[in-house]
Amino acid sequence: PSHSSLKDEL
Amino acid sequence: MNIFRLAGDMTHLMSVLVLLLKIHTIKSCAGISLKTQELYALVFAARYLDIFTHYYSLYNTVMKLIFLGSSFSILWYMKRHKVVRRSYDKDQDTFRHHFLVLPCLVLALLINEKFTFKEVMWTFSIYLEAVAILPQLVLLQRTRNVDNLTGQYVFLLGAYRGLYIINWIYRYFAEPTYSTHWITWISGLLQTLLYADFFYYYINSVKNNVRLQLPA
């Protein structure tokens, strides 16, 4: 996706 | 992944290990709020729904399994273990945490980035984590005398949140594709502020080498 997401965080 | 994020995850891991160590070695959960532990288990269950559908990295998956496993095993110890559950002080741990769950769910339905089941559940877990420590902080105020391991547990939880905020600041400046995440930022900031007064008393008690006494 264009904008980063915080789903890679815990 | 930046050093602040890694330090935050390691601090978070330390907090659950300190708690498991306390409960497993001295077979006691005195001073620990079961309500907070139930809320944390719910936070992880709602947040890690994508654990089997979206693979980010081995680290990410392993840490999710550790947090899920540790939070549910803490629940098992406090509710099922014949020795540990006797040390749970349910008369003191009276915070009506159900009143926290529903508003967070409603808020997640109203304010979210995408109205899909997984996104709403993820947002719900963000809001719920912000308030999950409240029963524990109330219990600490009530029991006044805070034993070392419990104090360390809460301190490490607060430190993990603080490191995550630094991680977001770092990512904002370091990653060009990084955009605004107001929901997570505001919720995370409010959560960290809840620890502020605890930090003040905890650091003072460590500095003056006295038992941690929280004001009534």
From TrEMBL, chain B:
Origin species: Carex littledalei
Protein name, UniProt field: ER lumen protein-retaining receptor
Protein location: Endoplasmic reticulum membrane
Topological category with respect to the lipid bilayer: Multi-pass membrane protein
Main localization (coarse): endoplasmic reticulum
Keyword Signal annotated: yes
Span of the signal peptide: 1-31
One GO CC term, this protein: endoplasmic reticulum membrane
Gene Ontology biological-process annotations: protein retention in ER lumen; protein transport; vesicle-mediated transport
Transmembrane segments annotated in the record for this chain: 55-78, 99-115, 121-140, 152-170, 182-203
